[in-house]
Write a structure and sequence with these properties.
By secondary structure, the protein is of the alpha/beta class. The chain has a single domain (2-162), classed as Leucine Aminopeptidase, subunit E, domain 1. The chain contains five helices and six strands.
């Protein structure tokens, strides 16, 4: 499976689905979730909330609203909004995202830094955990994971851990 690292907006990548580092309640306030909701529409959050609670370690797919993607995967890195995340929660969220995208037959998945915003996880720790999970995943349909973030520190952390 190919792994690509990009500095930029997750809304501008060429992927089948994107990942929202969510909370278990499905509420989309700040960070990446807020951007997805602002540009994709309130219906994305409404669908996520209807599927809540979404336990850490699981993921759900909603529509992508006005966005060009086939859907948004909501993978909680925390139980409630603005809670601290952890390396284990990030690992579970990444694994759940990969499993759901692969199970649904998607070929490309874009994912931002997980747990590093309001979750407070150091970028280096998140990058290492994310890449270990991605590299150990054995896909059936998933061909490419795009790691994309506007934060240059996150991008550098992925690049450092990619080898």
């Amino acid at each position: 499976m190919q792994i690509e690292v990009i500095k930029g907006s997750i809304l501008e990548v060429n992927a089948d689905v994107i990942v929202n580092p969510a909370n278990s309640l499905g509420l989309m306030g700040g960070g990446v979730a807020g951007v997805i909701k602002r540009f994709g529409g309130e219906e994305i959050e409404k669908e996520a909330v209807q599927r809540a609670p979404i336990p850490v370690g699981s993921a759900v797919l909603t529509s992508a609203g006005k966005l060009k993607f086939k859907g948004v995967i909501h993978a909680p890195t925390m139980e409630e909004p603005a809670m601290e995340s952890s390396e284990e929660k990030v690992r579970k969220a990444v694994r759940a995202s990969l499993e759901l995208a692969d199970c649904l037959g998607f070929e490309t998945l874009a994912m931002p830094g997980m747990g590093t915003g309001v979750g407070g996880l150091p970028k280096e720790l998140s990058a290492k955990a994310m890449l270990e999970e991605i590299k150990s995943f054995k896909p059936k349909s998933l061909k490419k994971v795009i790691l994309v973030d506007i934060d240059p520190e996150m991008v550098q952390a992925w690049q450092k851990n990619l080898c």
